[in-house]
Amino acid sequence: MLDGKKSLFSGMQATGTLTLGNYLGALKNWLTLHNDYECFYCVVDEHSITVRQDPAELRKRARNLLMLYLAAGLDPEKNCIYYQSHVSAHAELAWILNCFTYMGELSRMTQFKDKSAKHADNINAGLFTYPVLMAADILLFQSDVVPVGHDQLQHLEITRDIAGRFNAIYGDVFTIPEPYVGKVGAKIMSLQDPLKKMSKSDENPNASIFLLDKPDDIRRKFKRAVTDSEGQVAYRDEQPGIKNLIDIYCACLGKTPGEVEKEFAGLGYGVFKEAVGEAVVGVLAPLQARFEELSKDKAYVDGVIRAGAEKAGYYAFKTLRKVQKKVGFPERIK
Ligand code: TRP
Question: Are residues 273 and 306 in the same domain?
């Protein structure tokens, strides 16, 4: 809770470009949450350097991600949109929470195990304490809810454990966050392997639609989408490729699977795939146009970035000061 309003925090890494899955499954559903929550959407650039990054690339991708938030329709007057690295309270709280987190619990994190297998030459301490920084992100804003994908639930669980442990010693300092279970967006699968989630880091570029893909690339990727040999547009688990395309079509046009089955009854996959491609091109066109505009309006985006850091800082430092006092750091002399 912040100033009597429930609060919500979410963060995204600036690695890779957002996909249609991120948009239909998450971002699109965030646009109205500010009616019920004080919302913080953070570009978590500090998490990104747990694996090696090219500095110029990281800076560019972080800005693009922030502009995509705006282009997708998140209103910066109603939501706090900012860079993690602009609010030093994140790193400062993470340090304190490190001292309330056990090596044993961090070693059990599946993402750490996966990432250290993938980056065997760079298993750094930041990769290990990644969940503690994430806990700091969430707890700084006394977040009630956190919209996260399935792969981040374990990190939310450790956040709850750390917060509970801290509260047990020092009194009620942190709100214990819950995963956000609201209207869930569509779960969009890979176009090349419909049993796998669409991912921004898929090695096969045809597997994912990126939000800034050109219309012709989008059309081509849908043409090549993996389906089956059943030959009917039916919404059933036995046809995961077609099912995924129906989900995408429904999410874009607000239709139901039943309506889509009727619309394409007796028509071939070619016609259906083309229609899905067009629907996606149509949904992304205004977002892409807005992104173009924002790319040219440096002053406006800079203003959002400055205001975001200021607002996030206001709340974050309030929590941090309280924590510092609780653990026994000397008072600041005014
Ligand atoms: N670890 C998250 C991911 O990779 C990103 C993240 C960082 C996050 N801090 C967060 C998500 C706080 C939710 C809340 O997806």
Answer: no
186-214 pLDDT, tens per residue? 889 999 999 999 998 899 999 999 999 99
Residue tagged active-site, from 6, 187, 200, 223: 200
Q: What angle do CA 156, 157, 159 make, to 5 degrees?
A: 65
Same domain, 142 and 225: no
Question: How far apart (Å, rounded) are the C-alpha atoms in residues 141 and 62?
Answer: 21
The minimum-distance atom of ligand 1 relative to the CA of 47 is: 7
CATH number at residue 259: 1.10.240.10
Residue 167, φ and ψ in degrees, nearest 5:
-60, -35
pLDDT digits (tens, 9 = 90+) for 24-38: 988 998 999 999 999
Considering the entire predicted model, what is its pTM?
0.94
Residue 111 burial (CB < 10 Å; 0-12/13-18/19+)? middle
Of 276, 285, 152, 197, the C-alpha closest to 19 is 197
pLDDT for the residue numbered 181: 76
**73 and 166, same domain (yes or no):** yes
- Catalytic pick among 115, 243, 273, 311: 115
Tell me whether residue 197 is one of the annotated catalytic residues: yes
Q: How far is the CA of 134 from the centre of ligand 1 (A)?
A: 6
Crossing angle for the helix pair 110-118 and 153-170, to the nearest 10 degrees: 130
Centroid of ligand 1 to alpha carbon of 100 (angstroms): 20
